[in-house]
Amino acid sequence: MSTWSAERRISSATGYLLLRLGGLVRDRVEDELRRWGITGKELRVMSLANDREASQRDLCGLSGLDRTTMVAVIDKLERLGYARRARSAADRRKQLVLLTEEGRQAVEEAVTRMTEVETDFLSPLDPAERELLNEMVARLYTVHSTS
Fold this sequence. Notes:
Layout: H1 6-11, H2 14-33, H3 40-51, E1 54-55, H4 56-63, H5 67-79, E2 83-87, E3 95-99, H6 101-121, H7 127-145
Antiparallel strand pairs: 1-3, 2-3
Helix pairs in contact: 2-6, 3-5, 3-6, 4-5
């Protein structure tokens, strides 16, 4: 039996620390994205639509969002003037999500700012430690997100 208290075992556990760290990063990102009126989830959808011609259905698959959530996200992006829906010329059944010029500019600015936020957040680590951390987190994500 461990001599450490339950609280100490939990608060020093890697999983618990990752949860807390993730919350800190999320809060900083969400704070920064407010200047564009969007959340991290909405930036993700915008970045996916920015890089490809995608239908609402495609974006659901790429982002992991369900259809109801995706409709709400796209509705909000349309209200903000960042996106519009359009029928696909190749398949009239498909509803494409297209970013407006304002939406493309917002993606570029927000992604640039997110890179700055990440750099600042990770500044206690040297470049080699940052690279190693990224590799380890990516490996864990890849293994566990597909299981």
